[in-house]
Amino acid sequence: MIFDNRPCDLGEGAFWHPTRGQFFWFDILNRKLLTQDNGAREYVFDEMASAAGWLDRDTLLIATERRLLRLDLNTGGQTDIAALDADNPVTRSNDGRADPKGGFWIGTMGKSAQFQAGSIYRLYQGEVRKIFDKITISNSICFSADGTFAHFSDTALGQVYKVALDSQGWPMGQPQVFLDLTKDGLNPDGAVLDASGLFWVAQWGAGRVAAYAPDGSFVRAVDVGGPHSSCPAFGGADLTTLFCTTALQDMDAQARAAFLDAGKVFALPNVSKGQAEHQIKL
């Protein structure tokens, strides 16, 4: 089912605000945050933006190319919180999500997907700290409900990782490969863990969101209406609707004619029960 008819060049950052009961997503290349609020609404930024988390009912944290900022949803006002890779013109923000301890993880990547140009940072108690580097396309950032581990991926390698977290949500030890999708020719993009512990990952180029068990075994997949599925999120009143952004990027005229709904957001009811997005604590 199509949730919104506005096609995005690069849809990303799917996010269900738990206290507003409202879905948000980004069109990265066109520097927009989109939502439906008594009709279609857009917030425009002066640089590419890609991921969000909630600070309170009316305020989001937004990750952009060069900074983390506070967005007032009522007025559209923007206030800087912290710099993000600000001295590196090669990179931009990409995938991100709040963790159970109130931190916010955000990955970067080269604007032209330069080899190992990206990193993953964590904002926690006012500090932005780099926690992983030498990543080409950072994606799949998500967390177990109990906060004991995190996932992230490097799409360029086709691998998803798992890393243990300490009592404050910082990584412990080295990440281990959770999924190696190279043998299947699949590209992990955005991801989320549901309430039962299944790992749901959008697979760029495959037009689907696939679920994997905690042992890495494939469980099932649901199709969306665009080949470049990019980021899932669970939402709706009972968190059982799976939303997924898609993208027009890398599609030629023939491909766009074949997939007329590419770039739109899809909403698939009664897929699984999700987790509520965690509140960021500055």
Unreliable parts: none
Helix content: under 10%
Main pleated sheet? 4 strands, antiparallel
**Strand coverage percent:** over 45%
Structural class of the secondary structure composition? Answer: mainly beta
Question: How would you describe this protein?
Answer:
The chain is mainly β. The chain is built from one helix and 24 strands. The strands form six sheets. Strands 1-24-23-22 form a four-stranded antiparallel β-sheet, with no helix packed on it. It has a four-stranded antiparallel β-sheet with strand order 2-3-4-5, with no helix packed on it. The longest helix is centred in the C-terminal third of the chain and has 6 residues. The protein is globular. It starts with a strand and ends in a 14-residue tail after the last strand. The model has no long low-confidence stretch (mean pLDDT 97).
Could you list some keywords that capture this structure?
282 residues, mainly beta, four-stranded antiparallel β-sheet, 24 strands
Quick summary of this structure?
This protein is mainly beta. 2% of the residues lie in helices and 54% in strands. The protein is built from one helix and 24 strands.
Give a topology summary.
Blueprint: E1 2-4, E2 11-17, E3 22-27, E4 32-36, E5 40-44, E6 49-56, E7 59-64, E8 67-72, E9 78-83, E10 91-98, E11 104-110, E12 118-124, E13 127-135, E14 138-143, E15 149-154, E16 159-165, E17 171-180, E18 187-193, E19 199-204, E20 208-212, E21 218-223, E22 229-235, E23 241-246, H1 253-258, E24 265-268
Antiparallel strand pairs: 1-24, 2-3, 3-4, 4-5, 6-7, 7-8, 8-9, 10-11, 11-12, 12-13, 14-15, 15-16, 16-17, 18-19, 19-20, 20-21, 22-23, 23-24
